[in-house]
Amino acid sequence: MHLNTFFLRQLAPALAQRLTGCVIATCFSQEKDELVIGFADEVAKREVWLRAILTNNPTALSFPAEYRRARQNSVDLFPEIIGQGVTAVRAHFTDRSLHLVLTDGAALLFKLHGARANVVWVPPPTATGRVPVLFRRKLREDGSLTHAALAALAAPDAAVVTAAIPPPPTTAGLPKYYGEIPAQWLRERQYDDAAPTAQASLWHTLQTALLHPETYFLTDQRDRLHLSLLAVGPAPEAFPDPLVVAEEFTRRFRSTHAFGALYARAHRHVQRTQEAALRASGEVERRLRHLATDASYRQTADIIMANLTEIPAGATEADLFDFYQNQTRRIKLRGRDLTPQRVAENLYRKAKNQQREVQELQERLVRYETAALRALDQLPALEALAPAADFRQLRNWLREQGLTDELNQSKADAA
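The chain above was modelled as a monomer; its predicted structure follows.
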């Protein structure tokens, strides 16, 4: 419910109040799908941070009390907004988005649509010829956003719209934008079996709680953390401020649920890497043993050349003395059209290729064994991170081990 339209409706004025007197001092990204904006209030000597997380783990806005920018892998973005203040924050009814209105008339849209989440700078209406700037440029349709479109999104009044909705006969009749938790809240109070007058009373109580919440809750539902405007489930934890609960939700979600998902994927990847490397090295070793124990092309060619006088003209095979093994051996001469000398020449050429194959196999074996040993070392180190369930610590470890790109690639390959 952290992206629920009713929560964003409360978040917007709280954010506007916190940003009063501030100007945007910095805007950067140091994670692939994260944008960080730092606001400064020179009079009150305070900083305000806004972090847009544009992934599914989760898509969220968070408001950390402080933020330390990394010295590397960090890039400045949206230079257009630096030095601007915020005159308003407007939530969009039923759209899972909101936008900041800047002092120069521009807007900064936070579109919190999961896989299609984005941040978009919409130029001032007076900026003729300027076009929107996108954080995720591949979402090209966002490049057509206008102030009129933002105004249309912000126009519906949630109180007016919901006041016109009669009590539904069952919880299945709730509009989708209400979400699952309001339906659960009604079911816990036997709404579906209640008389019409009781349903009307419960419906009014629900509307009041969603439109004018006094408390915000964090609750576990089906082993997943939820931010709620309603007290549902066992022992929900209460917070008085929407900005504080949003930050706490994001922090906990990323350190538990997101950690679990990333940890499982990383553990599976390292295990599979080790298994694949061991399997491949075993195949290479078998091939090398075959090449080492089977008579080589060079030896066969040497035997032919040493026994030229013993080979009948036009023979396709002959029993020749193998001085390497000190015994007679039947050797195929591969075709009536080739002289024994020509057969030997072909075998010498293949011997060179065989030698190159052995060298390549030995190099490949070293790579596979190195990969297997690397994975063998990584598994206990990875498993040691499990008790803390710290998402950032895990992410940093994956980056240090060079596993981030491998995980991203394996995920892309599976898509």
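The chain has eleven helices and 15 strands.
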